[in-house]
Amino acid sequence: MPIDVLSVERLNFYYNSTEVLSGISLVIHQGDYIGLVGPNGSGKTTLIKVLLGLLPFNHGRISLFGQDIVSFKEWNRIGYLPQKAASINPRFPATVMEIAAMGLLASKTFPRYIRHRDREIIEDTLKSLGILDLRNRLIGELSGGQQQRVLLAKAIVGNPDFLILDEPTSALDPHTRERFFDLLREMNEQRRITIILVTHDIANIGRYSSKLLYLDKTIIFYGSFLDFCESSDVTRLFGSFAQHIICHRHDHNNRKTG
Ligand SMILES: Nc1ncnc2c1ncn2[C@@H]1O[C@H](COP(=O)(O)OP(=O)(O)OP(=O)(O)O)[C@@H](O)[C@H]1O
């Protein structure tokens, strides 16, 4: 039986005494591509940080690749792009190539140095994100969108099994955004990489992901787009307008591609 990429049982998380995540239970399978949506302050980033072991949770249980998070060590299997990619120290003395290389070094056992083949992999990744020509520039000298692409390169260069992206396209121009989503689709469909994508772009989310996770402190909806679009519970909860916005684009894309 295949091992679940992620399993969460009855998770609760508090900041001080304020409950931010309540009774979260979910299972993510290999190859799932999940759009994580919800209003501002609904706990999306907090959930991601808890899943990455960056915040200690109060109650519940989390397993990654079948192992309890408490003893999990294979963090190199997970690529992560944090939300505030643009808040880079302008004096950070690393080039684009060096930042991207960090994502590859994390997955290496000793000796940890970059070989010729690694350099090719890094350059291919930079090229796929349209930033190969920036490879020798210092990260602090780049624009917000360029910096975001560099951090994306770092997150995906090690070919992770599980990719978690917190609003990855907020600083990208439309052309780069489309290229980026094509790249994610290829990683998901051809390499079966599991993806969680946090986004506020609900009008387009159905074009990219296969499942929707709607969070508002607790899970409001988690399932396929088909279920979301056909559910009368969803209509009651979100209103037919919001449901239509999400489902219309999904239908449109299915017709286009299918
Ligand atoms: N370090 C912190 N200390 C205390 N409260 C926090 C902290 N970080 C976030 N919160 C609170 O936790 C709640 C969830 O925040 P979180 O950033 O997870 O939401 P989000 O869904 O990612 O929001 P957004 O869509 O605006 O990015 C909010 O009420 C926020 O104010």
TrEMBL record:
This is ABC-type Mn/Zn transport system ATPase component. It comes from Syntrophus aciditrophicus (strain SB). Pfam families: ABC_tran. Keywords: ATP-binding, Nucleotide-binding, Transport. Belongs to the ABC transporter superfamily. One of its GO terms (molecular function) is ATP hydrolysis activity. Signal peptide: none annotated. Residues 6-242 form the ABC transporter domain. The keyword Transport applies. InterPro entries: AAA+_ATPase, ABC_transporter-like_ATP-bd, ABC_transporter-like_CS, Metal_Ion_Import_ABC, P-loop_NTPase. The keyword Transcription regulation does not apply.
